[in-house]
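Final paragraph of the annual report: two paired records, presented back to back.
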Amino acid sequence: MQRRPFLALLAAASFPLRAAPAETALWQRLRAGGHVLLIRHAATDPGIGDPPGFVLERCATQRNLSEAGRRDSRRIGDALRSHGIPIGAVLSSRWCRCLDTARLVFGKAEPAPMLDSMFNDDDGRRRAKVAEVQARTGDYAGKANLVLVTHDINIRALVDISVAQGEIVVARPAGDYLDNLGVLRAHE
């Protein structure tokens, strides 16, 4: 008799979960365009930050996407395309894990130093990067969605929320800040 609950659980796990109403509303908003998508790079090899002595121009010296991260990036792209989300410019941190995420998701990436990791930046440099992002996004009114691929620490500085690798914060330009509308987990 113990097998029935296990089989029912197994059967339930094999069907995709329905999106929560808030997530469905975010997809609808994105279809209309004019939003800013803050994407944390997809899953990486284990670690925090980068190895000592890493060189920005040499991917082999950095913490890079794992195979799961590359797979999740492709899934994110598939989810955005299947929902009909219009994509405009795709700006990315110059870290290889961000550029690779952007290219796997969207097929393009424009390196943007303002999105580089703030992990080792002093407070003045962090404030300068936040101000540059806010200046770029504050009056964004494009018909497509503007994409920023960056790091958790940067997203926390911009919208005061921590996200998992590969998660997307949907924001609305609001002058001198980004209004966080919610988080999408497009890779699940």
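The closing record of the year follows.
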Amino acid sequence: MSTPLFRLANTADLPAITDILNQSILSGGQNAYTEPVDLAERTTWLAKHPPTKWPVFMIEDSGTVVGWCCFSAYRPERKSLAGLVEITYYLDSLWQGRGLGSATVDFLLEEAHRRGFRHLFAVTMDTNIASIRLLEKKGFDRWAHLPEVAEINGQICGQVYYGRKL
């Protein structure tokens, strides 16, 4: 693996964003989505992520798109929570286990500092051990656990929130 390149996403990246998200959904058990998303849904989603405030980044390795990540507002209508920002990251299944997740969270931390964010958090299923280990390795603490709140492919699981003050 070479050093990944992070670049701002644009509408031409929507098929790759959709495909990578759907890989995670269809792999079962690690994602709160239960049905694949379509291009129209992701188009609406991208429109809510202006690059100046809530950017979406494509992750490339040697010119190949291998994933994406983003910052998102948390309850934007509540101004007192403006310093709390959600991070999301997805990697193509063929590229997982190669250190890209670690490089991606490092990039998000650096970019968050640059943007003046005060707190980051990530939400994942309590069955997603790889993501939990990654977040803990990067200094995120478990802020909350919502036990047994989801049913994915017949399995009852919970959702966890991991956060970090910057």
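The mean pLDDT is 94. This concludes the annual technical report; the extension proposal builds directly on these records.
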